[in-house]
Amino acid sequence: MAGLQIRDVVRRVQDIVADATGQRLEGDAEEQLVALLGDLEEGTWPPNGSAQEHFSYRDVTILLADLRGFMAMTASQPAGAVLELLNKCFGRMSEIIVGHHGVIDKFMGDSIMAILPACRASAARTRGGRCTARWTCRSRSRR
User: Whole-model pTM?
Assistant: First the structure.
């Protein structure tokens, strides 16, 4: 990659970051990206071996959950009631996820995506936990 190509890649990465976060990389972060791309071009990255040495691997659980019957409910309820239900349910689901040391990746319409540490419990206990979380959300949203 020539210097011009590196700057083009940096500009494209800047566009991706700006689209995702609303802000561009600035200052030191941009310089680190330029240096990393230069190292890749020269074949000096990763230092001292393969890239695998610089990452950690973990077992995780990816949770995708949505609200059952949401589309039918939106057709028969006013927008304010739908938003209130979403806020209540997402609030409770967020508490449950964070309470289990999870990280919320995104909210998508009536869905939530989260990453949680892998569960080492038995299958029965895992199913019980899922049912409890589902029931807790459902029962609270009815209040």
Answer: 0.50
